[in-house]
TrEMBL record:
It comes from the Bacteria. CDD domains: HTH_XRE. Residues 34-81 form the HTH cro/C1-type domain. This is Helix-turn-helix domain-containing protein. PANTHER family: BLL4672 PROTEIN (PTHR35010:SF2), BLL4672 PROTEIN-RELATED (PTHR35010). SMART domains: HTH_XRE. InterPro entries: Cro/C1-type_HTH, Lambda_DNA-bd_dom_sf, MLTR_LBD. GO terms for molecular function: DNA binding. SUPFAM superfamilies: lambda repressor-like DNA-binding domains. Signal peptide: none annotated.
Amino acid sequence: MDRTALADFLRSRRAKLRPEDVGLSTGPRRRVEGLRRDEVAAVTGMSTDYYVRLEQARGPQPSEQMLAALARGLRLSTDERDYLFRMAGHSAPARTPLDTHVSPALLRVLDRLEGTPALILSSLGETLAQNRFGAALLGDHSRLTGFARSSVYRWFTDPHERDIYPAEDQDRQSRAQVSSLRVAYGAAGPHSRAAALLAELQRISPEFVEVWERHDVAARFSDHKTLLHPEVGAIELDCQALFTEDQSQTLLTLTAAPRSDAAQKLELLAVLGQQSFAPQG
């Protein structure tokens, strides 16, 4: 681990960013250029003291998970992320079609979508980043680990995952989940995370096997869908997807027609956030 090089690099990347670049407000009395150390800590989910020690070249070796959070929070390119890992004494992550390092370009768009539910997904349906509105509408899946990170896995193993879709739409959603996995498997190959996920689902879910044998292949998102939210009920939303050039990550936004019933429900949801007022039983 090269602590001095790591510290210099972190300081230089922090100095190049502004609060609005990472979805933070500037504030009325700001004098410092670049992000403050506490702001970097906030967007990466670490303590300010821990981050300060890294910049002062006296911190412990960061874990790969911590480095991934730093790369995402500092909006590093893939080359910059790899350098960060190497200076911290780790091998750079393998570059594959299933790389979960979030595209900085998609993150810049996500940061500017405060009033719209939005999230960034991997080709395995993993939530790589989401705004607060997206978490309020769809739930926060960004902290999940293992196979459960994938929406495909959750769809076929957790019955509650289907609660957000009307019963009449669930078969279509099953086919969409499986066909997206087939696209990911085709891109990544038989020795990938997609292959491991496929093998696990084939082992535990007869329903998945049945749908998989249809050989549907598609990575498209439906343009219009109805979602069921426990606090505001059914919401009809238009779904738009923005893909990275290699199609490995997707920025998904969900909007309602102006002045519609759904638009009013989204406004209410923006106030409620992730609070739950449903009876506990």
